Amino acid sequence: MGPQPAADPLLIRAVADRLVRARDEAFEVSNDLLDHLAETGDPVSQRAVDSLVEHASDTLRALTDSLGETTRELRAAAGRYATAERSVLRTLDEAGDDA
Hints:
Number of strands: 0
Radius of gyration: 23 Å
Low-confidence stretches: none
Order of helices and strands: HH
């Protein structure tokens, strides 16, 4: 197995933190969208507008879920990389002591 690409756990965590903010914003916008229902006065148009608003809100909620999952995966990966990095440093340190 060849060398693995280096990953910076701090950078991974920074990306995860930004995704958290995006997730929170998407959730808030989905709620705001539902709070501001437009009234058209025409039943057919109203159903179309209501449907569009509901679909948009559902899409934002799905995005919220996806961003949450991605954030969890990134944080777990950052933890694994940090642990692996410490292990490599410890091994190199021990090898230096033996020399």
